[in-house]
Structure formats: structure tokens, C-alpha cells
Design brief:
Order of helices and strands: HHHHHHH
Structural class: mainly alpha
Largest sheet: none
């Protein structure tokens, strides 16, 4: 169950980014591409995390918790933008950028030995649904403050990091 919750939380950033994206055609293909990337990067992250946990057996919970806390803190302290830069960048590059952060988060999840298959499948599913909804219904969905959503996700990641200290 933690894997599904973690996958949902790490997929929320597509809503923030994709509501500012101005794209007319290929919305589903972009959402599908983003979903595939949000499955590939966590797989690499899990492999890296599992590999490194063998070298840091006694420290893996502490290291993964610290990584999650630092990523969450970065999300909270990150400057907010209005999305004007997003419109000028190729959407495939944006999909890549949105998906890269799942690598670093899943390194931590690999260190604490979360169920890889459940997390990756849920991450792909949630990313597909959330990114397509953000692209399709962005006129009806108003993200008043991406800063609030990003801060909420940051707090949740810090909470998950703290919980991993006690694993």
C-alpha cells in the first residue's frame, strides 16, 4: 500500500507542469510517453538503490530517509514560476524533465526495499491519468498555486523520509 501512495505522490508534479503547457495535438501520446518515462526512471532508481543498499547495509534506511527529506526540502524551497518558460520548450524535453525526479526518489525506495513492481506499475498508471487530465482539462482545472501543491508533496516526502529512519 505504501508503494501505491508513494507512486501517487511522485506523480503529482505532472499536474503542475502540464497545466501550464500549451499543446494542441498529441496530448495522449505525450501523456503516454511521460508515463513510460515515469516507469523507466524509477526502475533505474530501484536498481541503483538496491545495488547501493548492499554496500551500505547498515546505513540504507538512514541514507534513503536523508535523500527523501532533502528532495522534499528542495520541493518546499524551490522557487515558483508562472510557467512562461514551459511554453517555449519541446514537450518531449518537458516529459523527460518531469520524469527525472522519479529516479532520485526511487533510489531511496530501492534502498528500503519497497515492492518495485507495484510502485512502477502504479507510477505509470497515475502519471498517465494525471498528465492526460492536466493536458486535456487544463482550462477547467485551475492550479491556483503550484507552490502549495509542490510544498504539500515536499512535506509528504519528508514524512516518508522520517518514517524510513524507523524501518
Amino acid at each position: 500500500m505504501n508503494e501505491i501512495f508513494a507512486a501517487f505522490i511522485t506523480s503529482l508534479d505532472v499536474i503542475i507542469v502540464y497545466t501550464f503547457l500549451r499543446i494542441r495535438k498529441g496530448k495522449f501520446l505525450l501523456a503516454l510517453f511521460t508515463s513510460l518515462l515515469n516507469m523507466a526512471f524509477p526502475l533505474l532508481g530501484f536498481i541503483t538503490g538496491e545495488f547501493s543498499s548492499h554496500y551500505f547495509i547498515g546505513w540504507s534506511s538512514l541514507l534513503s530517509g536523508t535523500l527523501l527529506c532533502l528532495i522534499g526540502l528542495h520541493m518546499i524551497l524551490q522557487e515558483s514560476d508562472d510557467g512562461s518558460q514551459v511554453a517555449r520548450v519541446n514537450p518531449l524535453i518537458i516529459a523527460l524533465a518531469v520524469s527525472i525526479d522519479t529516479f532520485s526518489v526511487s533510489v531511496s525506495f530501492g534502498m528500503i526495499h519497497m515492492n518495485k513492481l507495484i510502485f512502477i506499475a502504479a507510477s505509470g498508471f497515475f502519471t498517465l491519468i494525471l498528465s492526460y487530465a492536466a493536458l486535456r482539462y487544463k482550462g477547467k482545472m485551475e492550479v491556483k498555486s503550484s507552490r502549495v501543491v509542490r510544498s504539500l508533496v515536499g512535506v509528504v516526502l519528508i514524512g516518508m523520509g522520517v518514517m524510513s529512519f524507523f524501518r
